[in-house]
Amino acid sequence: MEIRGPVELPARREDIELQTLDGLTLVGELSLPVDREPVATLVTLHPLPTAGGFMDSHILRKAAARLPALADLAVLRFNTRGTASPRGTSDGEFDGGRAEAFDVAAAMDLVRDRALPEPWLVGWSFGTELALKYGRDHDVRGVILLSPPLHRATPEEVAAWAGDHRRVVVLVPEFDDYLRPDAATERFASVPDATLIAVEGGKHLWVGETQTRRVLTEIVGVVNPSALPLPEEWPTP
Fold this sequence. Notes:
The protein is α/β, with parallel strands linked by helices. Helix content is 27%, strand content 23%.
């Protein structure tokens, strides 16, 4: 069976709820390898909910569908405040990245309570803003930023990662709608240790199986490189 599109590989999948310090309940899902413990954890932060982003945005959904089986990773997805998906609707209202600080903290509380190993924040678009603004407040190994627009994260918040022991890995599509590789190099110049990866042919939404595989490969290459190359076939039961 070819691994592509909506194919969902075996995993232990659990509907979870996160409780924020300001009293909201957020809905989500935790996906784990079937028969072993994960070697690392992806805490995913979805694109802008007012533009259709949610926990099922396709790269994050495919990460949860494939990477527990292919790379021994735990994948935590959730809807930030006021965001709806087939899993349900999280309490509250979208706050433009301000009160969402509580949402990131609630996710990290679950990581701590479940003793999930080696957590990484993986943000996509709006999710990269949350990772940059609030990731340094938490015990993470680093941040992986997919298509960062840098609309809400200030230059000071970006520069604050300079000299931090945690990794900053930035995937920038060649044809991004908001921030392309040359501009990203300038905007992240304040973080000399950041790893910028220009993705040829990429666009902001990473549409198509070729781009999906490239993004998932880059993520695994950061958090569990021994799992590469990722298989493109799965044994048919």
